[in-house]
Amino acid sequence: MKRKKTRILCGFLSILSCCLFLSAAAKAQKLNGQIDSLIKIVITDQQGPGGVFMVAHKGKVLYQKAFGKANIELGVGLTPENIFQLGSMTKQFTAVSVLLLEQEGKLKVSDPISKYLPDYPAGNKITIHHLLTHTSGIKDFTKMKSLASIAQKEMTPKMMVDFFKDEPVDFAPGERFEYNNSGYVLLGYLIELVSGERYADFIQHHIFDQLAMRHSYYANDRQIIKNRAYGYQKKENTYVNKTVINFSVPFASGSLMSTLADLLKWQNALSQHKLLNVAETDKAFSSYKLNNGTPFNYGYGWHIKEMEGLPVNTHGGSIFGFKSMGVYVPGEDIYVVGLTNCDCSSPTLLTENITCLVIRQLIKGQ
Fold first, then answer.
1. How many domains does the chain fold into?
2. How far apart are CA 304 and CA 336, in angstroms?
3. What is the pTM of this model?
4. pLDDT tens, 126-166?
5. Structural domain of 148
6. Which SS3 state, helix, strand or coil, does residue 62 take?
7. Which residues have C-beta within 8 Å of that of residue 82, sequence separation ≥ 6?
8. Is 77 part of a structural domain of the chain?
9. Which of 204, 286, 218, 208 is nearest to 257 (CA)?
10. Coil, strand or helix at 6
11. Are 133 and 99 in contact (CB under 8 A)?
């Protein structure tokens, strides 16, 4: 009798488990279909450049697909394994590199930059914190008319700093928040001065190698990189190959390349404190205030926002031929990334919409 009851119970549990599995599979299929629909509204031409998208929850991939072509001339389709230029998502890596040096006691974010660059104009008033938070007031080199004169030249970090350092400042340090690429070029130079390593080598040794990010690089148009996606721009009604720039110009503000899988390794490492301790991590993801006490929503290398009533950390990027966007929901461990290989197609709003959809489905059960 007991055996019969046991068999009945086991059968019931087996049926229940099967039902739960089918229910979860149906929900996953529904979510995937909804994400597909959102993407196809934006990426409509499967014969043109497109993008790759990923959703991860608790460190595991829930959704990952590619749309469009990696190379239009050869008719090669994009895959989730393709390597994309990240543009300003590079700033995350630069900010964490600075915090790694602080963690090692080699600098402090409160240091004035004159400690490392004694001849920098008003460098005693500009701190590393100001550079990290885009509150330094220094001239953004991307807004200078003379940028075209150096865009294709090989520039050392010092040459880049010399290019903008004598320009009139836009405001006093800490007075305003204004997104600034020059600040992150300066940070890359400081990383080199403090560590004794080239910026590209520091990122490789202290981040990429540490996290087994084997498909991430400091960008180089001459190096043969397997699975590299080609970049495009749109001119009138046709696609053209991207404008060529020398990556020594954007430098630490926008010159890294990566894949969806490597970016997930990166986010998981940050969440699990594999690189930074809790105190340094908190600095990256805190909001700060201007001199007058007004708060602004930027940490060190990330925008601090809310979506669906939850705090999120975000950052996008744009460089000739490519755009990128990453959104992380820390309280729920949700990570959403979109990478596109045409700067005519921004994944920013799309990635944010996917994040909101995932929050509603997974967390709120709507």
1. 1
2. 15
3. 0.92
4. 999 999 999 999 999 999 999 999 999 999 999 999 999 99
5. 89-217+246-256
6. strand
7. 52, 66, 70, 227, 228, 229, 259, 341
8. no
9. 218
10. helix
11. no
* Three-class DSSP labels, 307-348: ECCEEEEEEEEEECCEEEEEEEECCCCEEEEEEECECCCCCH
Q: For the chain, what is the total number of helices (H) and then of strands (E)? A: 9, 15
Residue 200 lies in a domain: yes
CA–CA distance, 113 with 122 (Å, rounded to integer): 9
Query: What percent of the chain is predicted at pLDDT more than 70?
Result: 93
- Ramachandran class of 270: left when φ > 0, alpha when ψ lies in -120 to 50, beta otherwise: alpha
Q: Tokens representing 222?
A: 């001459």
Residue 201 lies in a domain: yes
**Residues near 204 by beta carbon (within 8 Å), at least 6 away in sequence:** 218
In this structure, the number of other CB atoms found within 10 A of the CB of residue 46 comes to: 12
Q: What share of the chain is helix, strand, coil (3-state, %, to 5)?
A: 40, 20, 40
Q: How far apart are CA 317 and CA 319, in angstroms?
A: 7
Residue 292 to residues 54, 137, 138: CA-CA distances in angstroms?
A: 40, 15, 19
Is 53 contained in some domain?
A: no
Residues 46-68: tens digit of each pLDDT: 999 999 999 999 999 999 999 99
Name beta bridge partners: 63.
55
Cα gap 148→150, rounded to integer Å: 5
Rounded Cα distance between 265 and 59, Å, is: 8
Other CB atoms within 10 A of residue 172 CB: 15
Report the distance separating Cα 250 and Cα 152, nearest Å: 11
DSSP 141: G
CATH of residue 251's domain is 3.40.710.10
| Count of all residues that appear for the chain in the document | 366
Which pair of structure tokens corresponds to residue 129? 């914190």
